[in-house]
Design brief:
The complex is a heterodimer of chains A (240) and B (137). By secondary structure, chain A is an alpha/beta fold. Chain A is built from 11 helices and 6 strands. The two termini of chain A are 20 Å apart. By secondary structure, chain B is of the alpha/beta class. Classes of the chains: A alpha/beta (240), B alpha/beta (137).
């Protein structure tokens, strides 16, 4: 049975090697991925929006994304919006943690102030992750269940999505080419569950499709028709 | 006439050890080994379409250092109109030095640091070759 990808919060950091602030964004992002919110966050290298395929460019359309930039050039926020989708939140390290007179060190080696900035930016990212995942109420519940703000039970490895991509299928909606996120996996899952194309299956399909795609109210009927036809064609192809 | 510095463009690998090796080797080249003839170009700067860096990357040769087979650095430099004089892969150098097994992302282990140094030495030779070719031209 294919496993549908789980929505997490996507983190896209500029990681700029020119400024110490770029290193601050990179280390802060890693800290959230590995320590404060592992399992709830995923990352992708910013340049992959340009160098990768359509699955990579679907990243910010699938995961609500936080762009983490080192400076006011906002390369991560601009690049994410241009090639994938507008980030759900944007953090600029130089704004929330202004550089002290002696600076943050270098891009290669942060000083004490730089390391403190990593903590400040990581906290800001974590706060935004919680907001995007349903707000502080969820976190209060977690605390009540005995967990702390750190999640040591989850293996500390950064969840890198580079190259894995979100599977997409292109639908024709009123003459427009529209990418439906996760649709190949959804079709495969329904087929393996033995669901034949029929009106009941279409209703179920649409419920699942809506979990991964934002469908405008005035396009619901068009999507339903396209999904119905698409699934029937998919089952016919697989039967051969 | 003063030559333009060669661009050293490491991948922005954030979730993989090899990305960290690429980054570290670029720092070694541009700060320690060839600061007068090589300069780092952050890949992030090339992503926005209105970036001034896109003009700058076209004005000199680039040596790209990629951490994985997706080769973001080489692809983005080519895509934005730059000249990829040499495209290196960390994995390629690791295959020649299997005793230097890198580990760690935020902080490289000793093997990773040594591998970055080996890679940086290789890049420095290529920087020198580009400089010589320019003088001969």
């Amino acid at each position: 049975m294919p496993e549908l990808p789980r929505k997490k919060v996507g983190l896209v950091s500029c990681s700029g090697e020119e400024l110490a602030e770029g290193t601050v964004t990179r280390l802060a992002t890693l800290r959230v991925l590995e320590s404060t919110r592992p399992g709830e966050t995923v990352t992708i290298c910013l340049p992959l929006f340009l160098a990768g395929g359509e699955g990579d460019r679907a990243f910010a359309r699938f995961h609500p994304t936080i762009a983490i930039d080192g400076c006011e050039k906002r390369c991560a926020a601009k690049g994410t919006e241009r090639y994938s989708a507008k980030p759900a939140a944007s953090i600029v390290a130089s704004e929330i943690s202004p550089s002290p007179p002696n600076g943050f060190g270098t891009a290669r080696q942060l000083n004490e102030a730089g390391l403190q900035a990593v903590t400040t930016v990581a906290e800001a990212i974590t706060k935004q992750v919680d907001r995007l995942l349903g707000g502080p109420e969820d976190k209060r519940q977690s605390k009540a269940a005995g967990s702390s703000s750190e999640h040591p039970q989850v293996p500390a490895t950064a969840a890198c999505s580079c190259g894995s991509g979100i599977p997409v299928m292109v639908l024709d909606i009123a003459g427009r080419r529209v990418e439906a996120l996760a649709l190949p996996l959804i079709f495969d899952m329904f087929r393996q569950s033995g669901k034949a194309p029929c009106p009941e299956t279409t209703v179920e399909l649409m419920e699942t499709v809506r979990l991964y795609n934002s469908i405008p109210d005035d396009e619901q009927a068009l999507w339903t028709e396209a999904i119905e036809l698409g699934y029937a064609a998919y089952i016919a192809r697989e039967a051969h | 006439m003063k030559q333009k510095k060669v661009w050293i463009v490491p991948c922005s690998g954030i979730g993989k050890t090899y990305g960290s090796v690429a980054r570290e080797s670029a720092f070694i080249v541009t700060e320690d080994l060839r600061p007068a003839t090589a300069q780092i170009m952050p890949l992030a700067l090339l992503v926005p379409e209105d970036s001034e860096a896109r003009q700058a990357i076209r004005e000199s040769d680039s040596i790209t250092i990629d951490g994985c087979k997706l080769a973001c650095a080489a692809k983005v430099v080519a895509e934005t109109g730059g000249t990829v004089a040499h495209a290196l892969q960390v994995l390629g150098v690791y295959r020649e030095h299997r005793d230097l097994k890198p580990a760690g992302i935020a902080e490289l282990n000793e093997g990773g640091k040594k591998l970055a140094a080996v890679l940086a030495a290789k890049v420095s030779v290529l920087v020198d070759e580009i400089g010589k070719e320019r003088q001969d031209a």
